[in-house]
Specification:
By secondary structure, the chain is of the alpha/beta class. It folds into 2 domains: 121 residues, 3-Layer(aba) Sandwich (Rossmann fold), CATH 3.40.50.2300; 87 residues, Winged helix-like DNA-binding domain superfamily/Winged helix DNA-binding domain (Arc Repressor Mutant, subunit A, Orthogonal Bundle). Helix content is 44%, strand content 23%. The protein contains 8 helices and 12 strands. Strands 2-1-3-4-5 form a 5-stranded parallel beta sheet, sandwiched between helices. Strands 6-7-8-9 form a 4-stranded antiparallel beta sheet. Strand 7 and strand 8 form a beta hairpin. It is elongated, with a radius of gyration of 19 Å. The protein starts with a strand and ends with a strand.
C-alpha cells in the first residue's frame, strides 16, 4: 500500500485513476491544481505522484523540485510518445511515463513497478541510498558506511524531515524492542554527522533526531 497523489485537472480522468488505485489497496488523494498538490505534499510522509504532463510547466516546476528533493517518485501521463524521454530527463529521482489512453491494469502495473524501484533507492537532496546494493553517495561521491550506520541512515531517510525518537530508530534500524540501548543511537548519529556533515542530522530536544539535507 502506498500514498498516491493524482494531479489531474480532468475530473473524470482523476476519478478513474483514483478508483483503480484505491481498488488496488492504495490511499489516494486528488489535486486539480498545483496549489492543491503542494498542500498534499506538505501533509505527507512519502508520496507517489501521478502527474498529467499537460499541466503548465511554469507552475509544475516548483512542485517537481519539491518532490525531487524528497526523492519521491513521479509517474507522468502523456498522450505524446515522443515526449517520454524528455519527461524522464526532467526528473532526477525515480520516475516513469505512462502513455494515454491506458487501461486500469496498465496503470496499476506502472505504479507497482515504480514503487518497487523507488523503495530500493532513497534520495534526499544530494544524498542517495541504494538499499539493494547497500551503497550510499553524497554529491556523487561514495560514502563508506558500516552496516549499522547504513541501517540508521536508511531509517532516517524513509521519514525525511520527521523527528524520530531513539526508540523508533532502534526498532526500525536494528529491530531492538527494549529501551536500554538508546546510547548506541547517539554514538552512530555522531559517526554519521562526521561523514555527512555536522548540520545534516538535527537533535530534537527531549525526543530524538531529524534528518535535514540541503
Amino acid at each position: 500500500m502506498a500514498e498516491i497523489m493524482i494531479l489531474e485537472p480532468d475530473v473524470r480522468t482523476a476519478l478513474r485513476v483514483h478508483d483503480a488505485l484505491s481498488g488496488a489497496g492504495h490511499v489516494c488523494c486528488t489535486a486539480a491544481t498545483i496549489a492543491d498538490g503542494l498542500q498534499c505534499i506538505r501533509s505527507s510522509q512519502r508520496l507517489l505522484t501521478i502527474l498529467n504532463a499537460r499541466m503548465p510547466w511554469t507552475e509544475s516546476i516548483g512542485l517537481m523540485q519539491q518532490l525531487e528533493e524528497r526523492g519521491w517518485p513521479v509517474l507522468f501521463i502523456t498522450a505524446d510518445a515522443s515526449n517520454a524521454a524528455h519527461l524522464r530527463a526532467l526528473y532526477q529521482a525515480g520516475c516513469d511515463v505512462l502513455l494515454s489512453p491506458f487501461q486500469e491494469d496498465e496503470l496499476c502495473r506502472s505504479v507497482e513497478q515504480l514503487l518497487s524501484e523507488s523503495a530500493r533507492t532513497l534520495t534526499l537532496g544530494s544524498l542517495r541510498l541504494d538499499t539493494e546494493n547497500r551503497e550510499a553517495t553524497l554529491d556523487g561521491e561514495q560514502l563508506t558506511l558500516t552496516a549499522q550506520e547504513f541501517a540508521l541512515l536508511t531509517a532516517l531517510m524513509r521519514s525525511p524531515d520527521a523527528a524520530l525518537t531513539r526508540q523508533e530508530l532502534l526498532r526500525t534500524a536494528w529491530g531492538y524492542q527494549g529501551i536500554g540501548e538508546t546510547r548506541t543511537v547517539d554514538v552512530h548519529i555522531q559517526r554519521l554527522r562526521c561523514k555527512l556533515g555536522a548540520s545534516c542530522i538535527e537533535t530534537v530536544y527531549k525526543l530524538g533526531y531529524r534528518l535535514k539535507m540541503a
